[in-house]
């Protein structure tokens, strides 16, 4: 795993002086020197349950919540000798894709404070340079897009490959434990520790990643999205295609169904907001949340969900409630689920023909937080990463290049449960990308 100049205490001191609103809790160093991840330290998103520290998911509504158990992924890492360094803030309760929606202040891009870091795993991304790896969650692109904005590796496994036990649910059919690392090999090492089925999560499955080796893919599909991306990204993709061709990799450029891809965002929003409305209904000040004495239950409920929830979260939950209204379900929620099936069938028909499907992780470098270079929400490449959450296949975001000293990444997908193959192919791609960047 990546060697660090910083010690645990050195990294801790650096983060204590950090002004980016990233840290929710500082862990004490443990006397745990055994295991495959011994002496490696990590950050973890505050929407994971841990008995030590805070687990408020960056929401005022859960400020005093103290879990009695550790999330499975956290416990597996501890058992493997890894040291938790910090619990980090995120967009409130995992909802929000910018890093601007934590109840404890916005988190910006450490490479350029005028740029977005992305989210909701914003704190995980903003702390990666202080840790060996950073644990987060990925419901739409919450690890892989921040990875692109900071030039790191972001890996979202197949749905169910890693137990979600202890991860606070946002959208149950989309949520995936995911992580940022400094290179593909580090991501493999983390995968080998945290993958596996869990009796506490009935959606979890066994996927073998024990013997991952660098492998050259035979057939790679490049999605033709040139009209949706910046010229400097197009040029880098062209170079990558050429170097793969020269190494006898069969390349096919696919013109995707753009009309279908444009439905990814509304389908994702309808399904995720609806599931969030259901999943977060227990945060009412009675079942979960901050309870105030001497108030009627109706008053507790209203205060918890008005004062305890940020405006962005309230907006999404209002939309979710609207989609689930009896008179609206057929028109919105049921149609979105049908469209999800169409998207899944279409994308799987491509994934099953190739070892890899490749496309830009974003249309360019990290956008400005505000102003004329802010996020272009109409571009397919602004939300295309969510397709792998709708489908459930593994997806990895690999550093591809830079422009004006800011990075941009490549998205690489493979068919469902082929995580080991994807990681092996990614080792190969990482090497080839390094070659074109060193020309």
Quick summary:
The chain has helices at 8-16, 72-79, 122-126, 144-150, 184-194, 231-246, 258-261, 264-279, 297-307, 311-324, 326-351, 387-391, 419-437, and strands at residues 23-26, 41-45, 83-88, 133-137, 153-156, 177-181, 219-223, 250-254, 356-360, 395-403, 406-413. The protein is of the alpha/beta class and 439 residues long.
Keywords:
439 residues; alpha/beta; Amidase signature (AS) enzymes; eleven-stranded mixed sheet; 13 helices; 14% strand
Report the sheet with the most strands, covering strand number, pairing sense and barrel closure. Answer: 11 strands, mixed
Q: For this structure, what is the CATH homologous superfamily of the domain at 6-192? A: Amidase signature (AS) domain
The spatial strand order of the largest sheet comes to 1-3-2-4-6-5-10-11-9-7-8
Percentage of β-strand residues: 5-15%
By CATH reckoning, the class of the domain at 6-192 would read Alpha Beta
Number of strands: 11
Radius of gyration: 21 Å
| Mean pLDDT, all residues | 94
- Uncertain runs are none
Total DSSP helices: 13
* Structural class label: alpha/beta
> What is the CATH topology classification name of the domain at 6-192?
Amidase signature (AS) enzymes
What is the CATH architecture annotation of the domain at 6-192?
A: Alpha-Beta Complex
Helix content: 25-40%
Alpha-carbon distance between the termini? 26 Å
Principal-axis shape: globular
Spell out the helices and strands N to C.
HEEHEHEHEEHEHEHHHHHEHEEH
């Amino acid at each position: 795993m990546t060697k660090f100049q910083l010690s645990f205490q050195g990294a801790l001191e650096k983060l204590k002086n950090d002004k980016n609103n990233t840290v929710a809790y500082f862990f004490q160093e443990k006397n745990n020197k055994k295991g495959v991840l011994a002496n490696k330290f990590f950050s973890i998103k505050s929407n994971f349950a841990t008995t030590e520290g805070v687990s408020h998911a960056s929401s005022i509504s859960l400020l005093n919540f103290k879990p009695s158990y550790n999330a499975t992924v956290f416990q597996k890492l501890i058992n493997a000798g890894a040291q938790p360094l910090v619990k980090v803030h995120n967009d409130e309760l995992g909802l929000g894709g910018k890093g601007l929606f934590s109840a404890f202040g916005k988190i910006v891009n450490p490479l350029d404070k005028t740029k977005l870091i992305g989210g909701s795993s914003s704190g995980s991304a903003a702390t990666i340079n202080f840790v060996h790896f950073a644990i987060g969650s990925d419901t739409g692109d919450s690890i892989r897009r921040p990875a692109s904005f900071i030039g790191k590796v972001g890996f979202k496994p197949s749905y169910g490959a890693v137990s979600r036990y202890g991860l606070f649910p946002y959208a149950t059919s989309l949520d995936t434990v995911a992580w940022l690392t400094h290179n593909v090999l580090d991501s493999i090492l983390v995968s080998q520790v945290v993958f596996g089925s869990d009796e506490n999560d009935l959606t979890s499955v066994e996927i073998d990643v024990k013997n991952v080796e660098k492998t050259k893919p035979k057939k790679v599909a490049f999605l033709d999205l040139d009209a949706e991306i910046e010229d400097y990204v197009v040029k880098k993709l062209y170079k990558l295609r050429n170097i793969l061709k020269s190494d006898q990799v069969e390349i096919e450029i696919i013109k995707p169904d753009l009309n279908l891809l444009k439905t990814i965002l509304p389908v994702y929003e309808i399904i995720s907001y609806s599931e969030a409305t259901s999943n977060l209904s227990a945060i009412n000040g009675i079942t979960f949340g901050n309870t105030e004495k001497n108030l009627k239950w109706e008053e507790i409920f209203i205060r918890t969900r008005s004062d305890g929830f940020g405006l962005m979260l309230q907006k999404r939950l209002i939309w979710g409630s609207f989609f689930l209204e009896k008179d609206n379900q057929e028109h919105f929620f049921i149609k979105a689920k049908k469209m999800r099936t169409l998207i899944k069938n279409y994308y799987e028909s491509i994934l099953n023909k190739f070892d890899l499907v490749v496309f830009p992780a974003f249309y360019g470098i990290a956008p400005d937080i505000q102003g004329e270079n802010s996020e272009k929400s109409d571009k397919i490449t602004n939300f295309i990463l969510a397709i792998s959450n709708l489908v459930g296949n593994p997806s990895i975001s690999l550093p591809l290049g830079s422009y004006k000293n800011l990075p941009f990444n490549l998205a690489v997908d493979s068919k469902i449960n082929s995580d080991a193959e994807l990681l092996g192919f990614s080792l190969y791609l990482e090497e080839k990308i390094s070659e074109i960047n060193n020309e």
